[in-house]
């Protein structure tokens, strides 16, 4: 393309400036809620409910203390009789006429999130890679119907799916177990994995494997040594997409787990203080919960489009 | 498999010795009889071995439960009464749902929600995409920033919006009152019957406009430059170029975004459940919330199974259209 | 490629971590499930004695009230093993007994010499028996609770306000004795500036998701003459649920909501009520008694600033209050029932119950509450006793959840969303409830 021809479609400087301003304004405004979550997590409970809302405040980690502990209100005499406070959290709690009664359930819930999200992602990507290769390289009878069936499972309303799953898990003892959640999330994610990975594998020329097989590789060896290495980027991107779904999922987790295997999303909204929600603690939990996703979003930005459209749009 | 995947980076065709070593490792990892069997597998067998686990999993976790749901939808079964006899009641669950004014209300609420979120997200999303396509300096960075909300958990972030919406201490009311002069105690986003439906639309729009934007951007970038160049030669105005080139050519992409958002919001549960729980009264009670109340609070399992089937059918129809559009976009 | 390696390694590590974690969790630890609220935290403190005595560790699973019924009924229905002990809400007793969620405690009580006659009668009927008024026990009364009111004593005793109030309403500003008086007081304080801050009349229950608005409305309706059914003919509700008196009561509740609550209080239950009172927003505050110890100890509004009064009387002088509170039960799906019973035995002990009260729990043991020193032991103790004497409870039928769902919808639609009339709401409720009982084969 010649430079002159290019300039014809290149937007003018003014229009670029206007566009930049508007986009930046939108971006900044849309970041306000996230900024507010972050800011609130470092406020003291009184600061968090001050009117007008405080933009400048003295940061405190009380929210994080409250996130990880349960506390009980006691009389001053009771507190004075206790041995001296050993940590910052202890001290802050006592200043509010409370004592730390024990750890909260946030940490186990967060660990559940990690285990279930990573476990289901691993399984979904594993199964998805195999199936995608199968669909990509072989003539499978009814392939289109099967692919549609696989995709359509992702569109079912979660509550509708949860009803029979609830009954089924109750019968076979999978209620409120990490294994049950991993299987369920795998089933939901495998559809995304198959569609995305099929796209990635389709892009790997068949000639590579054929050449390998002429050299004496079996089909499986060719798959291991030739196709998989070529598909690593696609597999990594797919894995992160599956991970984000499993990490963020709420409806199944809220209905099918109650404690042992409960993940963070249904737990965080139930963090309360003495009255209603303890907003700094909720914000602290939310912040900790969101950080991994922010990192993944930045890592994934190039693959994002492909992932969210099931590979329909590839740019 | 896991092991091999991990080591793969060092395995390339230019290092046959490494390759061989890895092959040996693989052979050792595979039990002897299996390895010989595997070696002789036909492509057909490989195909089925690769595909079958996925299909089996989906059969177990999606299809079998679905059939069970269909079966239950003809009964009066209640999941919290294990000792009670289950009776077949034919189609009466379906009849009850289709004549029940509450479920129709819920469907209407859902329709409003879907409609307004799509309208707003498409308008704002397309505009943003168009602006970003001006390719100003730093547009890539700002695009990534804009994308952040859609990656977050609707439940966890939706929950926090309740705080933002608080009439007195919430940031939202404060900002609105700063610009409009309405006292912040009167901006009752979650309590007012008229405002609450908008409260959920706003959060959904905030979260998902980036999604629509991203797809629209792909659409805009798929338009080849030479078409614009030809238009310039013909001295078509910018306005005309927009209506006769940009919009029609990006349309399949916009459709794709609309359909996807439509399906997603039709089954919307988490954000609304945490933000309003369907209230005030029943003004924001979308279909999924009604379904959840019937299934997991009233425990009318048979009745809610029938409702679930009705929603299935609706979504399945939409999904069908979706896949058609998807294939059309793909074939371009 | 590197990222794939990392993802794989990360997943392997995570899987290894799960296996390790499941290995660590102690076999003999008991898990107790309850709502997340002050008394639960006090119970954590109290239970340290149990662990010290028996060596059995205690784990706790607390869920906020708005999710409490949802989560734990779901857990029980799924035959989950999460909870060994559960402090379940009073209305669950019918369903939990009939569907086998709870272990029947009669034999255990007999063996250990625990006598139900040692507990306050209303709590035994309310929290422990199913069918009601028969000697079949499914729980040990654990936490007595009832809806009552707190008020800002410091505001009520301001001379200038007392004078103004007397001129306006003709009686001395004090804790109201009737609902009519309560509304006058609420109106008086609504939108008033006190100490430079705008305050509101009263905080009442309006929550939609679980049981909030029903608890609040019922608390008022009882005193107005509402009855669940024909006393002579069970399940006959026409003319009782939707009697003229009930309609008056529901209209009153809406009027109170419209005139005298803080802005945006359209979804408030216990937690929001406490917040409103503690932040100095309201003059009066409807809430369960469990909130009182916390408010009494509060730095900002506690001590001399807070007063307590029992639910006021209705127009005909009838006076009732909504029962809250729970009994502690052993979950029949638990593998550790023996240890769980040990906990109940320990908890039933008189000294433990006395400490329970001192830490902020509401003991149901007669030896504790009928102690002559009890009424003066805390500023709210007498109000608590008075309130417990006038309690009524919602349906405790196995279908309670469906009955509650119906009332939540009808009441919230009318009171908060302003749809239809009170008569229509109650007529609708009769229709919904009739349907539920017909489905159950009880009508």
From TrEMBL, chain A:
A GO BP annotation: transmembrane transport
Predominant cellular place of this UniProt entry's protein: membrane
All residue ranges annotated as the ABC transmembrane type-1 domain in the record: 110-300
Gene Ontology cellular-component annotations: plasma membrane
Subcellular location: Cell membrane
CDD domains, per database record: TM_PBP2 (cd06261)
Residues spanning the membrane: 18-39, 114-135, 147-169, 181-201, 222-247, 279-300
Pfam families: BPD_transp_1 (PF00528)
Tree of life domain: Bacteria
InterPro entries the UniProt entry points to: BP-dep_ABC_trans_perm, MetI-like, MetI-like_sf
PROSITE patterns cross-referenced by the UniProt entry: ABC_TM1
Nuclease recorded as keyword: no
Membrane topology: Multi-pass membrane protein
Keywords, comma-separated and alphabetical: Cell membrane, Membrane, Transmembrane, Transmembrane helix, Transport
Family: Belongs to the binding-protein-dependent transport system permease family.
Name of the molecule in the record: Sugar ABC transporter permease
Taxonomic classification: Bacteria, Pseudomonadati, Pseudomonadota, Alphaproteobacteria, Hyphomicrobiales
TrEMBL record, chain B:
Domain ABC transmembrane type-1: from-to ranges: 107-322
Keyword Membrane on entry: yes
Annotated keywords: Membrane, Transmembrane, Transmembrane helix, Transport
Topology term for the membrane: Multi-pass membrane protein
Gene3D superfamilies recorded: MalF N-terminal region-like, MetI-like
GO CC term (a single one): plasma membrane
Subcellular location: Cell membrane
GO process terms (BP): transmembrane transport
Keyword Zinc on entry: no
Listed transmembrane segments: 45-68, 113-132, 138-157, 169-189, 195-220, 241-263, 303-323
PANTHER family per the UniProt record, alphabetical: GLUCOSE IMPORT SYSTEM PERMEASE PROTEIN GLCT (PTHR43759:SF1), TREHALOSE TRANSPORT SYSTEM PERMEASE PROTEIN SUGA (PTHR43759)
Family statement drawn from the similarity comment of this UniProt entry: Belongs to the binding-protein-dependent transport system permease family.
UniProt protein name: ABC transporter permease
Organism the protein comes from: Kumtagia ephedrae
Automatic annotation (TrEMBL), chain C:
Listed Gene3D superfamilies: Periplasmic binding protein-like II
Domain of life per record: Bacteria
Keyword terms, alphabetized: Periplasm, Signal, Transport
One Gene Ontology term, aspect cellular component: periplasmic space
First and last residue of the signal peptide: 1-27
Pfam families: SBP_bac_8
Keyword Transport: yes
Compartments in which it is found: Periplasm
Family: Belongs to the bacterial solute-binding protein 1 family.
Protein name (Swiss-Prot/TrEMBL): ABC transporter substrate-binding protein
Naturally occurring in which organism (per UniProt): Kumtagia ephedrae
């Amino acid at each position: 393309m010649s430079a002159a021809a290019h300039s014809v479609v290149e937007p003018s400087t003014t229009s670029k400036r206007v566009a930049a301003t508007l986009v930046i304004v939108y971006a900044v405004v849309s970041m306000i809620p996230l900024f507010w979550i972050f800011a609130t997590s470092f406020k003291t409970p009184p600061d968090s409910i001050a009117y007008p809302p405080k933009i400048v405040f003295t940061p405190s980690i009380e929210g994080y203390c409250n996130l990880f502990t349960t506390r009980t209100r006691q009389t001053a005499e009771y507190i004075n009789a206790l041995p001296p406070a050993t940590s910052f959290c202890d001290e802050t709690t006592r200043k509010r006429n409370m004592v730390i009664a024990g750890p909260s359930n946030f940490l186990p819930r967060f660990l559940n999130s990690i285990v279930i999200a990573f476990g289901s992602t691993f399984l979904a990507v594993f199964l998805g890679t195999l199936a995608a290769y199968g669909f990509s390289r072989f003539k499978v009878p009814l392939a289109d119907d099967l692919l549609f069936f696989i995709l359509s499972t992702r569109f079912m309303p979660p509550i509708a799916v949860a009803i029979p799953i609830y009954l089924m898990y109750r019968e076979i003892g999978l209620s409120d177990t990490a294994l049950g959640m991993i299987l369920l999330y795998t089933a939901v994610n495998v559809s995304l994995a198959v569609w995305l990975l099929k796209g990635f594998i389709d892009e790997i020329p068949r000639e590579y494997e054929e050449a390998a097989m002429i050299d004496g590789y079996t089909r499986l060896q060719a798959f291991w040594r030739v196709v998989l290495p070529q598909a690593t980027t696609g597999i990594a991107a797919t894995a992160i997409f599956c991970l984000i779904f499993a990490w963020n999922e709420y409806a199944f987790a809220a209905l099918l787990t109650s404690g042992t295997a409960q993940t963070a999303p249904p737990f965080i909204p139930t963090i309360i203080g003495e009255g209603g929600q303890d907003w700094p603690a909720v914000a602290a939990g939310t912040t900790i919960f969101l950080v991994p996703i922010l990192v993944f979003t930045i890592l994934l930005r190039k693959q994002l489009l492909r992932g969210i459209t099931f590979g329909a749009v590839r740019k | 498999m896991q092991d091999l995947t991990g080591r793969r980076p060092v395995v390339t065709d230019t290092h046959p010795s490494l390759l061989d070593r890895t092959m040996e490792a693989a052979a050792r990892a595979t039990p002897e009889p299996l390895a010989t069997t595997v070696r002789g597998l036909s492509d057909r067998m490989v195909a089925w071995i690769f595909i079958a686990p996925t299909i089996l999993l989906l059969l177990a976790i999606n299809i079998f439960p679905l059939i069970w749901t269909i079966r239950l939808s003809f009964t009066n079964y209640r999941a919290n009464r294990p000792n009670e006899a289950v009776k077949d009641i034919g189609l009466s669950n379906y009849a009850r749902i289709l004549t029940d004014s509450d479920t129709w209300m819920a469907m209407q609420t859902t329709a409003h929600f879907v409609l307004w979120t799509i309208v707003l997200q498409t308008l704002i999303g397309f505009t943003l995409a168009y602006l970003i396509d001006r390719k100003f300096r730093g547009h890539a960075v700002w695009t990534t920033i804009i994308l952040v909300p859609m990656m977050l958990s609707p439940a966890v972030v939706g929950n926090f919006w309740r705080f933002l919406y608080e009439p007195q201490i919430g940031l939202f009311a404060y900002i609105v009152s700063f610009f409009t002069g309405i006292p912040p105690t009167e901006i009752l986003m979650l309590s007012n019957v008229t405002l609450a439906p908008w409260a959920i639309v706003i959060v959904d729009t905030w979260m998902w406009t980036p999604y629509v934007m991203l797809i629209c951007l792909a659409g805009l970038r798929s338009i080849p430059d030479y078409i614009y160049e030809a238009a310039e030669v013909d001295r078509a105005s910018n306005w005309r170029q927009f209506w006769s080139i940009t919009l029609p050519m990006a349309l399949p992409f916009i459709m794709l975004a609309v359909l996807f958002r439509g399906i997603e919001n039709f089954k919307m549960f988490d954000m609304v459940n945490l933000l309003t729980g369907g209230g005030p009264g029943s003004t924001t009670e979308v279909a999924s919330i009604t379904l959840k109340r019937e299934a997991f609070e009233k425990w009318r399992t048979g009745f809610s199974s029938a409702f679930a089937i009705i929603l299935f059918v609706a979504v399945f129809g939409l999904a069908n259209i979706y896949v058609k559009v998807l294939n059309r976009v793909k074939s371009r | 490629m590197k990222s794939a390696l990392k993802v794989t390694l990360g997943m392997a590590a995570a899987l290894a971590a799960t296996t390790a974690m499941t290995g660590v969790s102690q076999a003999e630890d008991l898990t107790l499930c309850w709502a997340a609220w002050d008394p639960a935290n006090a119970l954590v403190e109290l239970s340290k004695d149990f662990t010290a005595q028996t060596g059995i560790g205690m784990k706790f699973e607390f869920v906020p009230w708005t999710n409490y019924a949802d989560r734990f009924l779901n857990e029980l229905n799924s035959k989950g093993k999460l909870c060994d002990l559960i402090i379940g809400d009073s209305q669950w007793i019918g369903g939990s007994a009939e569907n086998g969620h709870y272990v029947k405690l009669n034999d255990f009580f007999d063996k250990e010499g625990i006598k139900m006659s040692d507990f306050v009668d209303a709590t035994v009927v309310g929290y422990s028996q199913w069918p009601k008024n028969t000697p079949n026990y499914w729980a040990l009364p654990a936490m007595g609770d009832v809806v009552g009111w707190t008020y800002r004593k410091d505001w009520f005793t301001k001379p200038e306000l007392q004078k103004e109030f007397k001129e306006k309403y003709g009686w001395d500003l004090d804790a109201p004795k009737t609902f009519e008086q309560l509304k006058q007081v609420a109106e008086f304080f609504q939108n008033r500036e006190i100490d430079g801050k705008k305050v509101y009349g009263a905080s009442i229950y309006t929550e939609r998701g679980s049981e909030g608005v029903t608890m609040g409305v019922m608390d008022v309706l009882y005193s107005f003459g509402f009855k669940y059914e024909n006393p002579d003919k069970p399940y006959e509700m026409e003319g009782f649920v939707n009697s003229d008196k009930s309609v008056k009561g529901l209209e009153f509740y809406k009027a109170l909501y419209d005139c005298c609550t803080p802005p945006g209080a359209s979804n408030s239950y216990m937690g929001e009520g406490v917040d409103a009172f503690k932040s100095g927003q309201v003059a009066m505050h409807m809430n369960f008694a469990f909130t009182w110890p916390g408010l009494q100890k509060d730095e900002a509004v506690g001590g001399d600033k807070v007063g307590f009064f029992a639910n006021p009387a209705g127009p005909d002088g009838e006076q009732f209050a909504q029962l809250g509170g729970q009994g502690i039960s052993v979950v029949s799906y638990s593998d550790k029932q023996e240890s769980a019973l040990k906990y109940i035995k320990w908890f039933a002990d008189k000294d433990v119950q006395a400490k329970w009260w001192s830490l902020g729990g509401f003991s149901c043991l007669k030896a504790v509450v009928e102690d002559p020193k009890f009424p003066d032991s805390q500023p709210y103790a007498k109000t608590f006793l008075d309130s417990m004497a006038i309690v009524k409870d919602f349906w405790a039928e196995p279908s309670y959840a469906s009955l509650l769902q119906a009332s939540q919808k009808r009441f919230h639609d009318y009171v908060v969303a302003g749809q239809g009339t009170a008569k229509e709401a109650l007529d609708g409720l009769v229709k919904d409830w009739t349907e539920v009982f017909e489905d159950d084969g009880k009508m």
